[in-house]
Amino acid sequence: ELGEYDVLIKNEAFTIHQLDIILNKFSYSLIGPKRKGMGCDFAGSVVKAGSKSKFVQGDMVYGFIFNFFLPIGTAGEYCVINEKTAPEINKIPRGMSFAEAAAMVVTSCTAYQTLREHKDLKGKNVLVLGAGTCVGTYSVQLAKHFYGANKVVATCSPRSFERINSYGADVIVDYTKGDEFKSNSLLEFVKENGKFDLVIDTVRDISIGNRSIEFIKGNDENGVLAVINGSSSNDYENIHFIDVLPTWDSTKSWLKSMWSNSNPKVKIITFRGNEGFGETMEKLWNEKKLMIPIDSEFNAMTQYK
Predict the structure, then answer these.
(1) What are the backbone dihedrals phi and psi of residue 64, each rounded to the nearest 5 degrees, phi first?
(2) Is the pLDDT reported for residue 136 higher than 90?
(3) Confidence tier at 191 by pLDDT (50, 70, 90)
(4) Per-residue pLDDT for 174 more than 70?
(5) Starting at the edge strand that comes first in sequence, how are the strands of the sheet with 88-91 ordered?
(6) Between the CA atoms of 13, 57, 63 and 12, what dihedral angle is there, to the nearest 10 degrees?
(7) pTM of whole model > 0.90?
(8) What would the 3-class secondary structure string for the chain be?
């Protein structure tokens, strides 16, 4: 029987990404039943809702849950979501597909959280390291189209140039040409436009983090280096707990920011839901300023029979 704020959802799409793999793997070594759930993102239709739920039968919704220690997950035909404890559950904007809604949730919410915490970006300069990643993709779009950043600079590989440019990046730097080329290109930008107000590091870019004082405004000018706990070098087939912890370089940068105003403030981003996320993404979608990349689609009902 459903609780007052429970929502029974018929899943139409769910996403599997690095976070699912990491949490599912780690949960097996902790307490709880041996059989664990898989999947945290979902998109589907409300079949039934509790007496105090804001949703009704037929609503199309998306969101995510975090509970990899129990035999529940979104990788199934149905799931029950408690709207009070789920980090996010929102109605799908008109015209957005189930696949698009499921694909954007955790990654776009992480980007939204990172930018929202910096608050005022109008007329400011933002650097996104690893703009071709999922979080990087949404960081570029949100910084430019929602938070009104003056210049958005992105690092990515040539295969992502066209896509990241279409998302709103003003300057794109090819990181595949090496750290020296990347650093020199960014320093040239800084020379012409001033230091960055916010740098979002989605790939643990040590070459920039160790020289952050050269690229980012100091703590006294509200300069921020936001580090996402992910890495382009992780082996997700053999992931270890230490791989998702903040690096020693990030920790050193954080410690420096505690006592030196000339160094930027360092924030290690740990994911959570955020107030206003659903409204923000709906606004961008309705204004046709939100693009949702999907790597691959599979029919779960037939793929693994």
Answers:
(1) -155, 160
(2) yes
(3) very high
(4) yes
(5) 78-82, 6-13, 41-49, 60-64, 88-91
(6) 0
(7) no
(8) CCCCCEEEEEEEECCCCHHHHHHHHHHCCCCCCCCCCCCCEEEEEEEEECCCCCCCCCCEEEEECCCCCCCCCCCCCEEEEECCCCCEEEECCCCCCHHHHHHHHHHHHHHHHHHHHHCCCCCCEEEEECCCCHHHHHHHHHHHHCCCCCEEEEEECHHHHHHHHHCCCCEEEEHHHCHHHHHHHHHHHHHHHCCECEEEECCCCHHHHCCHHHHECCHHHCCEEEEECCCCCCCCCCCCHHHHCCCHHHHHHHHHHHHCCCCCEEEEECCCCCCCHHHHHHHHHHCCCCCCCCCCCCCHHHHCC
The pLDDT assigned to 243 comes to 57
State both tokens at 207: 């070459």
CB 79 within 8 A of CB 33: no
Q: Are 266 and 252 in contact (CB under 8 A)?
A: no
Cα–Cα–Cα angle for 156, 160, 152, nearest 5°?
A: 55
Residue at token pair 């759930």: 37
Q: Which residues contact 275 (CB under 8 A, 6 or more apart)?
A: none
Q: Are 130 and 205 in contact (CB under 8 A)?
A: yes
Six-digit token string for 253: 């940068």
